[in-house]
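Final report, results section. Input specification for complex C-07:
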Amino acid sequence: MLKAKIFVRLKASVLDPQGKAVTQALHQLGYSNVNDTRVSKYIELILDETDHSKATETINNICDKLLANPNTEHYEFSLVEVEKP
Amino acid sequence: MLKAKIFVRLKASVLDPQGKAVTQALHQLGYSNVNDTRVSKYIELILDETDHSKATETINNICDKLLANPNTEHYEFSLVEVEKP
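Structure output:
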């Protein structure tokens, strides 16, 4: 079995309103030395697959079809082997 | 300047409805070998601070006060040095 660790982030050119809101809230709480907050998704999933190249293809498809918005987001992932639970 | 890379995850004992929804959607798309999806937040922010122990204290406070819900979530983070932009 493989565990996929997937980051889905807004492209650098895309405004991150959630990140802006966090920065503003932190400034209001007195943390004026915090800036450039970016909020992303981090997704872990278990793949019942042992072949790394097949798993890579599957995760690319999953990200393209469901997890990431190709217009505004990009993704990256790594695979680690895990024991069956 | 330091960049903080913060993961905010649901505790293992807490149901992750977003993760369940992703698993179901993937099954419907034909990816029946995917299971146990967990969706977390990944936050990056820039701290105008050079002292690692002060930065660690600040990020702990920020997570406790704003970024994580202590009832249902836990967090972990790392700090990396970055150049001034």
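Chain A touches chain B at residues 7, 9, 19, 22-23, 25-26, 29, 31, 33-49, 58, 61-62, 65-67 (CB under 8 Å). The first helix of chain A runs from residue 17 to 28. This concludes the modelling results for the funded period.
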